[in-house]
UniProtKB/TrEMBL annotation:
Residues 28-45 have a biased composition (Acidic residues). Coiled coil: none annotated. It comes from Rhododendron griersonianum. SMART domains: WD40. Residues 46-59 have a biased composition (Basic and acidic residues). This is Angio-associated migratory cell protein. Keywords: Repeat, WD repeat. WD repeats lie at residues 72-106, 115-150, 157-198, 199-240. InterPro entries: WD40/YVTN_repeat-like_dom_sf, WD40_PAC1, WD40_repeat_CS, WD40_repeat_dom_sf, WD40_rpt, WD_repeat_multifunction. SUPFAM superfamilies: WD40 repeat-like (SSF50978).
Amino acid sequence: MNAPANDEEDHGEVFLDETDALHVITIDDQDLPEADEELGSDGEAIDIRDADGEQRSDGESMDEADDSMHIFTGHTGELYTVACSPTDGTLVATGSGDDKGFLWRIGEGDWAFQLQGHENSVCSLAFSTDGQLLASGSLDGIVQIWDINSCNLKCTLDGPGGGIEWVRWHPRGHLVLAGSEDSTVWMWNADKSSFLNMFSGHGSSVTCGDFTPDGKTICTGSDDATLRIWNPRSGENIHVVRGHPYHTDGLTCLTITSDSTLALTGSKDSSVHIVNITTGKVG
């Protein structure tokens, strides 16, 4: 130990013996922590116990309680969308980045129906108001309509040139509305598997939209920072809401009041605005 630093390599490994000790301190065994105790930053022992008072061993973590009623494990990718039937409290639909959609029931772990046919992520699902049909929208640009009673594919609706951002149903019928990444909005009659109208005017992906609760108007929001209000029958663009004092960045979500008079919109600019649907004025 007392050899010069430049001689250490010549001596190889260096060992300590009792004669190298400078001072010996005697420690009582009672001062040492038990094997199942941990030391805090100040050297004090920390007694680790579970929530029920049981002492746990060193390195064992506390497991949080799982209070879920049901666990569905059919997907192999990230979950993007969940929809619950408005008429059956146990029926759930889920869509994922694994290009799959599933119908399953809470409490029935052995039952699931796969919504087959999509070739890209299933990112939007919606049950019709009467619970008879389910619409599944995918980034493959396709909307599929499923008959809930028979679990059969009723029809496939196409037309948009980009992925489907969202799907919504008319409040009193089987008209389905979908917004696309290609800046358009499409409407079909699901009973007749027929195209009804295409709403064009947005300058970027149509990120949100819906029918008003009275079914007379359509509101859509886009990544172009505008809200557009449409006549569903004629396809006429009634109002375009944009510029000060409205959003300065793309819209991400919207909801409409139950009396069909106001639209509330959220944006990537971290603000929320209220718009009068009749006048197009920002509140």
